[in-house]
Design goal:
The chain is built from 8 helices and 7 strands. By secondary structure, the protein is of the alpha/beta class. Strands 3-2-1-4-6-5-7 form a 7-stranded mixed β-sheet, sandwiched between helices. Helix 5 runs parallel beside helix 8 and helix 7 packs parallel to helix 8. The structure holds guanosine-5'-diphosphate and magnesium ion. The site of magnesium ion (MG) has 4 residues, from loops. Keywords: Transferase.
């Protein structure tokens, strides 16, 4: 397949993100990808009770030139379920998970893509911890992220600096081939465990990060960190 026929699918799981959804869609649209790769956006509205749905629908009407799919869960099912729904709707060769907030910068897609495009890797993670200029959110999230990454490295034998990063980019055929059980934030440890168990090596690339606060809408909790450790152990033992 010629480069200009290749597409990066961007899955955006969104739950009550009315404050930021249009900003992130604008940012994703504004990014020019290397190798003439095109973009496809799949927004999964995870049963939002705010104006997220209405805003996405009017954004799509205002931007008919870009392929944006909008899929709705009638009730809130969790981030993992939103990603699983998104995976069913992607058609690109490559796929990345993009949160609906502004913590990660879509310009960084260009840093990850070359490793997939060269054929050397099938999985690339953007690491917030490899970029020393980044600020971090609450100390509990910083240390929790480091601990989860350390445990993943110990259990699966590959050094990872940022396992819970949102920026996980895959060859779509690989992601589609992996059956997932997750419903919530366990998407991250489950997919990491499963690709490493299959013998794939994960390439990490330094990315930028602008943390948001709980008041700004951050929803992950420290108990999600504990669950991540449990999920990493569970798939190691199985
Ligand atoms: N917390 C939560 N987030 C969801 C859900 N469904 C989709 N999401 C999205 O998943 C992302 C999680 O964002 P955030 O709370 O900032 O967590 P973090 O970025 O992983 O630390 C956001 O884009 C949410 O809108 C859900 O049921 N719960
Ligand atoms: Mg986030």
């Amino acid at each position: 397949m010629a480069d200009h026929e290749k597409t990066l699918s961007v899955i955006i799981p969104s739950y009550n993100e009315g404050k930021t959804i249009c900003h992130i869609l604008t940012r994703v649209l504004s990014v020019l990808l290397p190798f003439e790769i095109k973009k496809e956006i799949v927004v999964v509205d995870d049963g939002s009770a705010d104006e997220t749905g209405m805003l996405v629908e009017s954004f799509i009407r205002e931007h008919p030139e870009v392929p944006i799919k909008y899929v709705v869960h009638d009730i809130n099912r969790g981030k993992g379920m939103a990603i699983r729904t998104g995976i069913k709707h992607i058609t690109g060769e490559y796929v990345i998970i993009q949160d609906a907030d502004l913590e990660y910068d879509p310009h960084d897609y260009s840093l990850l893509l070359p490793y997939l495009h060269s054929g050397e890797y099938s999985v690339v993670y953007g690491s917030r911890f490899l970029n020393r200029q980044n600020r971090h959110s609450y100390p509990a999230f910083y240390w929790g992220g480091r601990l989860v990454s350390f445990i993943a490295s110990l259990l699966y034998g590959q050094v990872l600096t940022d396992e819970p990063t949102c920026y996980k980019m895959f060859r779509s055929s690989l992601l589609k081939s992996i059956p997932l059980d997750c419903t919530g934030f366990e998407f991250c440890p489950e997919i990491t465990a499963k690709v490493l168990k299959k013998g794939y090596k994960i390439k990490e690339v330094a990315i930028s990060y602008t943390p948001r606060s709980m008041e700004d809408g951050k929803k992950i909790k420290w108990t999600d960190g504990l669950e991540a450790i449990w999920v990493l152990l569970k798939y190691r033992i199985r």
